[in-house]
Amino acid sequence: RVQAVCPDIYSFFLAPTEGVGWPQIRKDSVRSHMVSRAMRVSSMLVCMGPWPVLGDVYLHNPRGSNNKLSEESNNVQNDNRLFDSQNNGKAGYQIGDKCNPVCHKNNGNTQYDETKEGAMKGQMYYYQGSELYIEWTEQHGCGHGNPNVICQLILQYMCNGDNEGIRDGTKRGNQNNAGGQQEPPTKAGADDETLGQHESLEFYLKCRQRERNKGLYIADKKLNKNNGATATRQNPGGNNNANQRHGLECPEERDYYPYWHPTPWHDIAVLTDEPYKRCDYYRAESQNVVGKGECSDSAYNNREACEGAKGQWNEVGAHRKHKGFGLSAEPEGPPDCRAGIESRDNHHGNTRGNQPRYYIWRIPDHIEGTCVLRLRYNVTTGDFHAASEANRGRSWRSNDTWDYFHVDNKVKPILRQDPTADFLKVDYNNPLQLQVNTNQYGRVFEDRTHTFKVVKRPLWMSIKNLAGPPRIVNYNVRGRRGNIVQVYPAVEYDFVPTELTVERGTWVHFQWTGSDANQANQAGNGLDKTDRSNLVQIKSRQENVPIGADKHTLLTTDGMGSGKEILKKFSYLGQHNKVACDPKSNNDNDQKNCKQLNGASAYFDGDLVQMNQMGVHHVMSTRNNDFSNRSQKATISVIFPSWRVWQVEILIVLGVLVVGGLVYLGAAFYALRRPQSWLFASKNRPRILRYMASPETIERKENERRAYIEDERRMLLGSGGSSQDESRGPAPSSLDVYEATGDFSVPWEKYGRPGKERCLRLFACCGLGEGQQLFVVAYLLLNGALFVAGFGTHLLGETSYAYPVAKGGGYMLDLNLAMVILPTLKSLQTSLHGKGGLAREWIPLDDPIKFHRTIAWMVCGATFIHIFGHVWSLVEISSSAKLQEDTLNVYGYSERESAAGTPIAEQLLSVKMTTGILLTILFFLLFMTAHAWCRRRGGSGFSAFQRVHAWWPWIYLVLLIHGNQRTWVWLFFPAIYVLVDRLSQLRGQQFPGVLLSARLLPKDVIHLTFEPPEGFTYEAGQYILLFWNGEWHPFTLTSAPEENVITVHIRSASSLDWCHALRRTLITEGPARAKGDQDVGAKTPEPEPGTIVKYERVELPGGITCCRPQGASASRAAYKKSVTTSLDQSLHDRLEAAGAVLLKISGPFGAPAQRVWEFGPIVVVGAGIGVTPFVSIMRSAQLRAQQRASMLGAAKVNVNIVKEKNFRKNWEENKRMARQQTAAVESESRATIPAPAATSWLSLAKLRKRGKKKAAASSVPEEDYESSRPSSSGAAPGEDWNPEMLAELVQDVIPLPTKIHFYWIVRSQVELDWFYDLLAAAVEGSASDIAEVNFFTTQDVGTEDLKALPCKSKHHFGRPNWPSIFKAVKEEHPGEHVGVFLCGNPAIGEELATQSRQQSDPPDNREGTRFSFFKEHF
């Protein structure tokens, strides 16, 4: 028994309810439940619409008949001929003709002659597997998102395998109903070949005899109970006579889908408004997939009633792909169900871009014979919504789950015929009447094509394309004669599709048909009543003159301009073979007027033409191109063939094989040309060398390799001498700064309150912790602006925020990924250190790695936003309506619309998503290995960090593939910086590391002394990169630039794998192997601290520079053995076996500490091992003081003049004022001072000084100048110069701080002893007066262990009180600019940054004291 629903195609997903008259059509209970829902749902094709629905639907290609045959009128003569269209009678196209030349009485008489051979025989045919462009318009709109209607479209086909009697018929007039003019129809009428027929007589009689589905919603209509299933809400009277019958169509099957009884129609596609709710059901219940049942006694519509009347319930199986020979083939498969593209109502149903709606049907390979297409257009109304005005006040059953598609016959009519009421509740005495026809509130429109044939592909095509069937595209013409007003709602002439893009090698089937029975005197060209179209090529669609045959590129067989016969065929339509053409005739109705194509047939078959010439080809019809009236033009684009999946796979495999082969051959050639390389070792040697070179050549190359290694071993092992100096050397003077940790400094928890600490830590992670807050805030705002730009740009036209959010994050990633690499560039770091002036106060020039980490956090945030938006978008896309395919790209789908309905797993397989996932994984690895817990851990922590970060070029390559053109633009300039940085390092910043000595110091520290490479210049505080064993590591230089060696101190505890291995090699294992002891290993005991191993330079035969312990020697037997065993070893292994090392130096690179020379007083703070750069600076300061004293002493100038504060202050003020008044000073100087005879720097300085005296009064008292003036012997005869001027110049040439406040925080006296000797030497002599050293020991230490330095020094116990220290420094240096430098724990940096800001006077106080903070963390 049927619980009916609102007559609409969507109704499903509903639980079964009690009712009457519902036909069960499945045997098993599970299927019965589904079918129960199907029955309740099946009332679909008619329902709802916000107003009375009067929309029509018209097929244009293939030509829709609208029940027309060959009437010479715009109006259909018998709208009951084959089906009930409900359409405008002016719609439709006459059947095609194939007369030669025309189906008229004679030349001059345009009356249609149905007896002529070819009349009504212009039937189209299509090849199996070809693509048929189905085009139509629905008058009142449809599609997903349409605000005015709820609708759906159903495409179906039927062939003579379903009804052998399918035909168009030839009987004209209005007495040509399918099945005859009797009701019920007779077999004689059904067998009449002159009458058209689609459904079979048996199908109609079963429908007429079968009880209608009484559960269907019928509104307020009274249905005829005596006409079975022919009575529906839309056809309430049923078929009482032949005038009410529409061919042999079953009204109930027509109005409801999917139908619950067998139907001959095969489903092609369903275009619905709610595919995510409805499509699964439609696919499951289509007869393409599941069988339908019927009773042997046609009067019964369900199993229960059928079997109760002793009938048999028969089940008709699903439509099968193949029939015949008694084989049970697989089902045809579910229909394509998608969301239809939205079209406008009352605008001829055009969609986006004013394009008609279309669907490309790939004709199945299993159908053959005569077929017909059916299009059903079902429009519904929103009045059936539960919350609609029509349902206000209605009480529903408590167990009802309301669905506006679930309305059965128990629901009272929601709307009645033409209701009258005071709807507005304003004036009851003056009601309003609604124009409601309840059998049209929810309505089905229909159109069908004339019959066509489906034929097999040509045999030659199958033989020629053994790899698979080639693509065939049907190219046709739509429209009929007349202007737009005369043909409406049909259309004028045009090629279909008007924009076609195919791949080279595609076959296009050019074919069209027309009628000779159009209404007379319609607008048009050529013979009256006739349709004719030809095809010629034009240069562009703006032009109207065909191009010459020699320039044709489309219709050529070889693509070289030949094939004139095919051009004639398409241009003249073969009419010269049918009539005697009269070139002089200008009579439009003369059949001999071939200029107007009057001698051609209405049907044209251009057959298959292969598209060989790539390019854009424009075509037109010479007859139907009246410019302002009509324009029959089109474009066919032929593009390069796309690769199939298996072709891409083969190409990838071949590419890998080719590249691998080339690399293998290149390696073989390299090994053959350079036998000393590791590739020529027997275990690595490419086997192809056996075939590339003769045995004699291989033997000769092996001898060359042996001789090379012998020379190498001879140089490495040497002879005589002791390999190790066992004497104890002094304790180390400094330590490497790279491995500095916060172990010896103040822990974070000691600063601030717990709540404040967490905030500070959070801000520090974001780059807001230690100054430069303004810049970081500005950078954050820039990121926010980019997010808004990306979000806003992609919000237009979007209904969701997901994609705009993802693009906003993408815009942020573009900026940050372009910036994140820049702070890591060594050359850029070095160039920026020491630059910037006041800009460095708010731009993080002095801590590029900190800025790098800040940007990395930005990358993390932007990545999260980007991924979140895309995941959100993925979910939305997967659950959104899958739109109908736009193969021709005429609808202009966005990327999201094209992917709508795609499952998440399938979306993730796209190139964008796969590269995005890969980038996410790589970013995660970068982020995790960059954390201190990984980077500073023992074992392989740092190695993992370094190796993962070495992937950055590949990450950016994947990023370029993942991104778009905007990403390429963002990365262009950073790529230039990277290229310059790498070239500068390769060409000028890498040197061989010539090691002079290695000394083992206490606490696992090694002191390495190198020979300065040629051209290597550096400043105190800078660092280098040291290469060994395939890795580069940074170390601060502990020597002063004024010395003739460069030194580094490396902490090499056992937890630091690379450093520890280097120490073992240089101090323990290397010297032992150099003496011939090859049994060294991890258990070999290490020498005591103080051991020194001296090294010497070795130039190997290949131009490689390495170092070996001095006095290396080995026995003759060991020497021969080593040569033999070294033949298959790499260079590194051979060097290790000989105790030699290969070191490289890259640099120097800038660091914040190098800016100490820009300030007068400075405060330097070293935490634990972070004191290293400042010890180097102290040593350099001592040497600079000595140089300055020597220069001033030679000039007999008082050295103390440069130490006075007044001098320093005046010196800075004079320099500032001199810059501001240079022009005036130079002008006055030229007017009062004669030009000097010489241009020495001393003379120029004197001239400058005289001008300054006149421009600004000096603050230095006159007596100071006099007291410091040297004797007359210190000046050249006739020169007048003063000592302050010379002191100023010396200060410029040799900058030196006026005061160094040195603070070193250590844990115990042991750490203090490491640097005592170096500090003592650094503060002796001239530097003792400017250095003030303060030690802070955080653990208990005995006073007897304390040592004094030869300068002002204090030893404190506990942590520094920074506020008091800064106040004391400020009082000591009023009005000066103080530089504050830190190397150590970030926690101390936070406090120093805070005190620098708080203790600095306001900027408008020019006499105030200012502190500038520089930091270096590790």
Summarize it.
This protein has 1418 residues and is α+β, with helices and mostly antiparallel strands. The chain is 32% helix and 17% strand.
What does this molecule look like?
- The chain is an alpha+beta fold.
- It has 36 helices and 42 strands.
- The strands form 11 sheets. Strands 4, 7, 8, 11, 14, 17 and 18 form a 7-stranded mixed β-sheet that branches. Strands 27, 29, 30, 33, 34 and 35 form a 6-stranded antiparallel β-sheet that branches.
- Strand 25 (about 615-625) and strand 26 form a beta hairpin.
- Helix 20 runs antiparallel to helix 23 (about 950-960), helix 28 packs parallel to helix 34 (about 1310-1320) and helix 35 packs across helix 36 (about 1385-1400).
- The longest helix has about 30 residues, at about 850-880.
- The radius of gyration is 48 Å and the shape is elongated.
Query: Radius of gyration from the CA trace?
Result: 48 Å
How many helices in DSSP terms?
A: 36
In helices, the fraction of residues equals: 25-40%
Model regions low in confidence, pLDDT < 50 over at least 5 residues: 1-54, 397-401, 719-754, 760-771, 1223-1279
Note the main sheet. 7 strands, mixed
Strand content: 15-25%
Instruction: Average the pLDDT over all residues and give the rounded result.
Output: 78
Q: What is the 3D form?
A: elongated
Q: How many beta-strand runs?
A: 42
Distance between the termini: 82 Å
Helical/strand content category: alpha+beta
Would you spell out the secondary-structure blueprint of this structure?
Layout: H1 29-41, E1 57-61, E2 104-106, E3 109-112, E4 125-127, E5 131-138, E6 140-142, E7 150-159, H2 187-190, H3 201-209, H4 251-255, E8 266-272, H5 275-285, E9 292-295, H6 303-308, E10 313-316, E11 336-339, E12 343-345, E13 357-362, E14 369-380, E15 420-421, E16 432-433, E17 443-448, E18 452-455, H7 459-464, E19 472-478, H8 484-487, E20 494-496, E21 499-503, E22 507-512, E23 536-538, H9 564-572, E24 604-610, E25 615-625, E26 631-639, H10 645-673, H11 689-692, H12 695-717, E27 725-728, H13 754-765, H14 773-793, H15 802-819, H16 826-832, H17 848-879, H18 895-899, H19 904-907, H20 911-930, H21 932-935, H22 941-949, H23 952-962, H24 965-988, E28 990-992, E29 995-1001, E30 1005-1010, E31 1023-1028, E32 1031-1036, E33 1046-1051, H25 1057-1074, E34 1091-1099, E35 1105-1109, H26 1116-1125, H27 1131-1137, E36 1144-1149, E37 1161-1167, H28 1172-1194, H29 1205-1220, H30 1222-1232, H31 1241-1255, H32 1262-1268, H33 1283-1293, E38 1299-1306, H34 1309-1322, E39 1331-1337, E40 1352-1357, H35 1362-1372, E41 1377-1383, H36 1386-1399, E42 1410-1416
Parallel strand pairs: 4-18, 8-11, 19-22, 21-26, 37-38, 37-41, 38-39, 39-40, 41-42
Antiparallel strand pairs: 1-5, 2-3, 5-13, 6-12, 7-8, 7-14, 9-10, 14-17, 14-18, 15-16, 19-20, 22-24, 23-25, 25-26, 27-34, 28-36, 29-30, 29-34, 30-33, 31-32, 31-36, 34-35
